[in-house]
UniProtKB/TrEMBL annotation:
This is HeH/LEM domain-containing protein. InterPro entries: SAP_dom_sf.
Length: 85
């Protein structure tokens, strides 16, 4: 899973200092392990968008006033949303 550093910390497993805004991949087990030590990371926006339903994507598009075909598939809607960044 892709995570984003929200508070600087030294990653003992990777032997590297993580900086605010840095994104990196972790397993679910490692994600939970880091969170158990403090609020150093969060799911990255890209990871959050993977979990969105079709209706949630439509709502985000509507909030951004982005037009889309009502019969578009979830993948098509996601591409439109990704292109709006």
């Amino acid at each position: 899973m892709l995570v984003k550093c929200i508070y600087p910390f030294f990653d003992l497993k990777e032997d590297i200092k993580r900086e605010i805004g840095e994104t990196f991949d972790v397993t679910l087990e490692r994600y939970e392990e880091i969170l158990s030590k403090g609020s150093f990371i969060e799911k990255a926006e890209e990871e959050i968008q993977k979990d969105l339903t079709k209706d949630e994507i439509k709502k985000l598009l509507e909030e951004k006033n982005i037009e889309y075909n009502k019969s578009a598939t979830k993948n098509e809607l996601k591409e439109i949303l990704d292109g709006s960044k």
